[in-house]
Amino acid sequence: MLLCRVEDRRGLSHLCAARSANGRDDWQIDAAPTLAPDPEHHPEEVWGIEDARITYVPELDQYVVVYTAYGEDGPCVAMALTQDFRDFERIGVVMPPDDKDACLLPRRIDGRWALIHRPSKPLTAHMWISYSEDLRNWGGHKLMLEARRGGWWDALKIGLAGPPFETPRGWLQIYHGARRNAAGYIYRLGLALFDLDSPERCLRRGDEWIFGPAEPYERRGDVDNVVFPCGATIEDDGDTVNLYYGAADTVIALATGSLSEMLDWLDAQPACQGATAG
To answer: Is 226 exposed, middle or buried (0-12, 13-18, 19+ CB in 10 A)?
Structure first.
């Protein structure tokens, strides 16, 4: 199941479910918005909602949907709970503007819930992690990963793609990086690995990007030169990753990869500053 961002002809976005038996074709799309903005009760959603990231949380026996809500004060992080993607319990804003690109980790860390998110400043944006005991009040904010400077592919701003994969070696995070050139922004993907028990601690980070816009539908569209995932699944073999991503902010596409190959590739990358390799 995909919870897709759909922009209507007014220019406002909502979330709509699409379901497929094999995750590749014969998609059955809800005839009406699955989760629509509710500006009467949630004014932060007056200009739409988008970019849902879904985490199944066994302790709650529910899916936690973290999404971007757009209001007059800018984008902010909002949260809703569901068991069936038909009825939702809105928690509302959990991170104020300007903030987005967020997801919940599937289990508590040292007794607290952990939320990855991306607050923004005018010229740059880094990934942060925050903690909560009740999913509503957040604190313990810690810098998780910084955008690099200069000519790097992930200079200027970064943000998580889908929720990270929990592996025996750490939290494997696919993240997007944006670099600006004379023609505008280019969004590409990279990899980083974080400690299982202290997920703000980066263990390894790839210097090079691993996936970028190359196909015509990725290079040209409403926003050119963008590959932007918000979620992925793992096949029954425990290794094949199906990465669903927005291409040029116009279509949704699918790419596949190997979890073990990504981890092996990271082994050859530099250890993060202050991290102990191993």
So the answer is: buried
Q: What is the DSSP letter of 226?
A: B
Q: What is the pLDDT of residue 122?
A: 80
In this prediction, residue 277 carries a pLDDT of: 38
The size of the chain, in residues, is 278
Ordered by where they begin, the domains of the chain are 38-145 (2.115.10.20), 150-278 (2.115.10.20)
Q: What is the DSSP string of 131-188?
A: EESSSSS-EEEEEEEPPB-TT-TTBSEEEE-SPPEEETTEEEEEEEEEEEETTEEEEE
Nearest CA to 52 out of 264, 252, 201 is that of: 252
pLDDT digits (tens, 9 = 90+) for 210-245: 999 999 999 999 999 999 999 999 999 999 999 999
Q: What would the pLDDT profile of 86-135 be if each residue is shown by its tens digit?
A: 999 999 999 999 999 999 999 999 999 999 999 998 878 999 999 999 99
The two three-digit tokens of residue 19, written as one number: 């379901």
Q: Is the peptide bond before 237 cis (omega within 30 degrees of 0)?
A: no
136-169 residue pLDDT tens: 999 999 999 999 999 999 998 999 999 999 999 9
Q: CB of 131 within 8 A of CB of 140?
A: yes
Quote the pLDDT of residue 188. 98
DSSP per residue, 58-90: TTTTEEEEEEEEEETTEEEEEEEEESSSSSEEE
* Tokens at 92, concatenated: 């509302």
> Could you identify the residue written with the tokens 């990869």?
257
Give the residues across from 56 on adjacent strands: 63
Whether residue 278 is predicted with pLDDT greater than 60 in this model: the reply is: no
